Structures are given as structure tokens and as C-alpha cells.
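Module 6 notes. Inverse folding takes a fixed backbone as the condition and produces residue identities as the prediction. Think of it as a translation problem where the source language is geometry and the target language is the twenty amino acids. Below is one complete input and output pair. Work through it position by position during the lab.
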């Protein structure tokens, strides 16, 4: 895993930990907070990081409040901390 991938994962986990209640984050919000310039691949990098975190049971991925298959979901994803973490 690259340094950027690790930075994205760490940022997601820190943001979720800092939420006052279990409010989901969107991939767009995460992209806005990361300062990678005009990286056109940033959203896809974020989605890959979120999928890795989901595979480790750290996060749950939803759209419109419903859990989705992250490998096939289109558009912005909502990410929330897994209840068991």
C-alpha cells in the first residue's frame, strides 16, 4: 500500500473518531479535506481505501442510509464507523 493510500485510510478513521455522534461521512467530504491538489483519481483512491477499511470491519458503507455493495456502488458513498469498533 502506498503512503497516500495509508494517509487516506488514516484520515478517514480520524474523521470518524472525531464525529460527535455516528454521522456518516461522504467520499466528497473526505476529498475536500485531503489536500492532494487537482488529483482526478482522488475519489477512486478514497473508494479503494474505504473498501479496504470495510473489509477489515472498521467501517460500513451506505448510500441513502442503506448498506450497499461497495464494489458495485456508483457515485458518492457514505461511510460510518462500524458499531463494533
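Target side of the pair, the amino acids:
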Amino acid at each position: 500500500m502506498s503512503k497516500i493510500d495509508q494517509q487516506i485510510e488514516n484520515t478517514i478513521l480520524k474523521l470518524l473518531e472525531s464525529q460527535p455522534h455516528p454521522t456518516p461521512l461522504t467520499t466528497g467530504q473526505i476529498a475536500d479535506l485531503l489536500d492532494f491538489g487537482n488529483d482526478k483519481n482522488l475519489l477512486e483512491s478514497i473508494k479503494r481505501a474505504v473498501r479496504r477499511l470495510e473489509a477489515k470491519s472498521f467501517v460500513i458503507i451506505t448510500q441513502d442510509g442503506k448498506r450497499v455493495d461497495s464494489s458495485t456502488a456508483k457515485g458518492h458513498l457514505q461511510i460510518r464507523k462500524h458499531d463494533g469498533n
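Reference fact for the lab report: Residues 3-81 form a domain with the Arc Repressor Mutant, subunit A fold (CATH 1.10.10.10).
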